[in-house]
Amino acid sequence: MPQNPFRQSRFLLSAQDDSHFPADTGREVAVVGRSNSGKSSVINTMTDQKNLARTSKTPGRTRLINFFEVEPDVRLVDLPGFGYARVNDEMIKNWEKVINSYLSTRQSLTGLILVTDIRRPIREEEELLINWCEKVNIPVHVLCNKADKLGKHKRNLALKGLREQLQGRQLTLQAFSTLQKDGLGELLTVLTGWLFE
Ligand SMILES: Nc1nc2c(ncn2[C@@H]2O[C@H](COP(=O)(O)OP(=O)(O)OP(=O)(O)O)[C@@H](O)[C@H]2O)c(=O)[nH]1
Ligand SMILES: [Mg+2]
């Protein structure tokens, strides 16, 4: 694999709302998905850094939108997870507001990495995100994470099921494991295509 261009990424800022977003220039890839699916871990794996994005066993850890700079005008974005049951209504409303304002206003958004758990079917919120991206023509790459939790046979079956569920949708999909770094080459190829070509 050629030198990983994301290794030099650094933390840029955390934003509570759109007034704190960095300038909307260049290109940016956002990592989205259910709470605890492994979004922050995926950012650490792709940048080859242990603690760039904060990870946690407790779902709902990432509450702000965290921006990372790969190089000037190229950014990675860690979005707060959805589907975290134990937050109150006010927090859910605020989450929706922040995510909606990010997704609907960000001109530099070039692609979405949707992190899911390979052991779970795609759920409604994930479908809604995929629909929205199809509508506005933003490519989606689904990372079926935590593949290390399944043996080879079950992993292939799970992937097949997810492919069937998402058949006909405008997206790409792969198995991934942040623990074993499985599929990192494939992910870096997608990201490099979106951000550097
Ligand atoms: N087995 C396994 N565990 C993983 C993998 N990726 C992440 N995890 C674990 O899953 C938990 C959640 O990871 P995070 O990266 O914090 O998840 P997140 O999606 O950022 O969560 P929120 O910020 O709360 O939305 C942590 O305990 C991670 O160690 C993986 O590929 N395999
Ligand atoms: Mg997180």
| Class inferred from helices and paired strands | alpha/beta
Separate helix tally: 5
Q: What is the overall shape?
A: globular
Segments where pLDDT lies below 50 for 5+ residues?
Answer: none
The Rg value, from CA coordinates, equals 16 Å
Helix content: 25-40%
Number of strands: 7
Distance between the termini: 17 Å
The proportion of strand residues reads 15-25%
Ligand list: guanosine-5'-triphosphate, magnesium ion
Please list the strands of the largest sheet in the order they lie side by side.
Answer: 1-3-4-2-5-6-7
> H/E element string?
EEHEEHEHEHEH
**How would you sum up the major sheet?**
7 strands, mixed
Mean pLDDT: 91
Written description of the protein model:
It is a single chain. Helix content is 34%, strand content 22%. By secondary structure, the chain is of the alpha/beta class. A 7-stranded mixed sheet has the order 1-3-4-2-5-6-7, sandwiched between helices. The longest helix is centred in the middle third of the chain and has 17 residues, at 89-105. The protein binds guanosine-5'-triphosphate and magnesium ion.
Q: Could you name the key traits of this structure?
A:
197 residues; 7-stranded mixed sheet; globular; alpha/beta; 5 helices; binds guanosine-5'-triphosphate; binds magnesium ion
